[in-house]
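sry for the spam today, last one i promise. struct tokens for design, 599 residues
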């Protein structure tokens, strides 16, 4: 007798493919709802300088201007000048970018060509639309990472634990904040997840000896490609070659040498063209990031190095590096390690790294993650700069966050081991326990549902309407000097040079020999400095002293060429111009940096 259609539908929904389709549909709706809620209630505009700088570089790429930047550092000016060759003055050529690796800006540039970006800020400002669109791209990368880790956990543990792992990742409040920060972290998380997949497959093939030499060469090349892409996204991740080498040597047996050679060769092929470009432009392989080890030492505290035209790096002694590494490692051990994943689950997952499991692939992946924790911890300590202070936790110098997917994988494995040893009333009760664990881990994110709604404006110091209005008093190609060039370049779309160490000799070295400075914008980064300890005493706060002189005493230093003050900026902004530009017709706002104004 033929089964009625309604019973076929019920059977399809309960035990057939329909159950899987229905689960996937419910999961997709939940994810879309969570994304909509977070972007509507918890989104904040960019606060990390690196995010604004990468975004303005991507906009230049999308406009066909190449890897040229509107963020100019005095140190970068000197590096370009020292290479000789063509006339590299700002007045003659757009400055090449020496700060950002190319992969993430290229991805953003493609997204900008695809989506309807609107860079103009209206009268009623709340969320900056281009930053919201960039957040959407990063959230897509976030979801892709969670899917990769779900598949990996399903392969190594079980489908149930794969769902739990994906849920822990997708409810991590810290990862959601990174997804809206504008940083390259989400791209790197996807790359690291892909690298974990490659290592698992290589280890299984070497252990079972079921693959030939060509197969190992192909997957070794893929590992090198992923490592190269990680290096072109964030230079510091190239140190992962160290744990990769040790992993190969420990677990790939006779295949280790061949796979390592192919990985290293492929990585070199990927990154060498960009390193050659850097060397031709600046005489360095990594540009400004190559000198980060000197930053935050006693000789170059804060951002002093990047604002120096001719720094003498020989004054930094070995003891300075040791001191910086020690201070950084203390911060890593006491803070960053405990913040893996953004909740108490991070600490729980760290316990899983010292466990032993039945699956040898998990045991060996655990060794790789331990090696990565040590390598990235030391690298993060030595590479720490003022960026970690300007935007704590949400910055490109947070390298340990990149291991979150792998650490969660091992942690979920440890949880699965514990769950199997609990005496539960019945087998299905394990789902209740897992749900409680997932909800507890999601507590920091779920509390965001509570009022009040997050204010997206990151003020102080960034108020985009004022920054854009002040910047666009200048014409494209004119030079603005400021203490936040990343913000004026991104919101104002104007060439912006970072204030040098003083408004005397260093200022005129740029104004007279590079390009005339048309305006000066000082933000709360300078005007909110501590009066006694910083403004009166510190050698790094000469511009704050100038702001006090102008704002309090209406006194512009003798000989300083910018004498006209704009009064609408508010008491914590100082905007000085060479003339009263606000009384002139609006500058050309076509969105292009254009040729230098004095050509």
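last one done:
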């Amino acid at each position: 007798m033929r089964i009625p259609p309604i019973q076929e539908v019920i059977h399809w929904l309960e035990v057939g493919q329909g159950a899987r389709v229905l689960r996937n549909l419910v999961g997709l709706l939940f994810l879309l709802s969570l994304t909509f809620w977070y972007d509507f209630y918890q989104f904040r505009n960019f606060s990390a300088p690196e995010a604004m700088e990468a975004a303005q570089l991507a906009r230049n790429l999308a406009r066909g201007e190449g890897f040229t930047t509107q963020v100019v550092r005095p140190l970068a000016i000197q590096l370009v000048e020292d290479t000789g060759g063509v006339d590299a003055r700002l007045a003659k050529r757009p400055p090449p970018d020496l700060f950002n690796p190319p992969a993430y800006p290229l991805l953003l540039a493609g997204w900008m060509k695809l989506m309807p970006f609107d860079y103009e800020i209206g009268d009623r400002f709340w969320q900056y639309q281009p930053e919201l669109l960039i957040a959407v791209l990063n959230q897509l990368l976030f979801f892709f990472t969670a899917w990769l880790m779900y598949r990996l956990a399903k392969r190594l543990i079980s489908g149930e634990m794969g769902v739990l792992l994906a849920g822990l990742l997708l409810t991590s409040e810290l990862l959601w904040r990174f997804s809206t920060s504008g940083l390259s972290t989400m791209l790197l998380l996807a790359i690291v997840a892909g690298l974990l997949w490659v290592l698992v497959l290589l280890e299984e093939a070497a252990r079972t000896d079921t693959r030939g030499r060509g197969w190992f060469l192909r997957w070794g090349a893929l590992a090198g490609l992923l490592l190269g892409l990680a290096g072109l996204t964030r230079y510091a991740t190239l140190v992962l070659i160290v744990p990769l080498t040790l992993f190969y040597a420990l677990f790939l047996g006779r295949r280790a040498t061949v796979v390592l050679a192919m990985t290293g060769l492929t990585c070199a092929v990927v990154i060498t063209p960009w390193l050659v470009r850097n060397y031709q432009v600046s005489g360095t392989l990594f540009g400004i990031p190559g000198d980060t080890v000197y930053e935050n030492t006693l000789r170059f505290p804060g951002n002093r190095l990047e604002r120096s035209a001719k720094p003498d790096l020989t004054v930094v002694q070995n003891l300075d590096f040791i001191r910086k590494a020690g201070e950084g490692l203390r911060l890593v051990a006491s803070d960053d390690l405990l913040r893996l994943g953004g909740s108490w689950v991070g600490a729980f997952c760290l316990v899983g790294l010292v466990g032993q499991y039945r699956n040898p692939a998990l045991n060996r992946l655990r060794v790789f993650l331990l090696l990565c924790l040590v390598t990235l911890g030391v690298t993060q300590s030595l590479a720490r700069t003022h960026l970690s202070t300007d935007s704590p936790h949400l910055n490109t110098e947070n390298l340990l966050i990149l291991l979150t997917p792998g650490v969660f994988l091992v942690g979920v494995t440890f949880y699965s081991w514990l769950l199997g040893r609990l005496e539960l009333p019945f087998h299905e009760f394990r789902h209740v326990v897992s749900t409680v664990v997932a909800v507890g881990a999601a507590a920091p994110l779920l509390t965001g549902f509570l009022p009040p709604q997050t204010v997206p404006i990151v003020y102080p110091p960034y108020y985009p309407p004022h920054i854009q209005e002040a910047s666009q008093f200048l014409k494209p190609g004119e030079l603005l000097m400021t203490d936040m060039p990343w913000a004026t370049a991104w919101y104002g779309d104007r060439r912006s040079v970072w204030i040098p160490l003083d408004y005397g000799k260093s200022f005129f070295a740029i104004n007279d020999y590079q390009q005339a400075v048309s305006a000066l914008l000082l933000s709360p980064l300078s005007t909110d400095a501590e009066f006694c300890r910083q403004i009166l005493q510190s050698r790094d706060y000469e511009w704050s002293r100038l702001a006090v002189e102008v704002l309090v005493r209406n006194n512009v230093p003798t000989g300083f060429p910018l004498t006209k003050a704009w009064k609408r900026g508010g008491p914590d902004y100082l905007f000085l111009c060479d003339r009263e530009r606000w009384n002139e017709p609006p500058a050309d706002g076509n969105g292009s940096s254009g040729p230098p104004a004095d050509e």
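The longest strand covers residues 517-522. ok im logging off now
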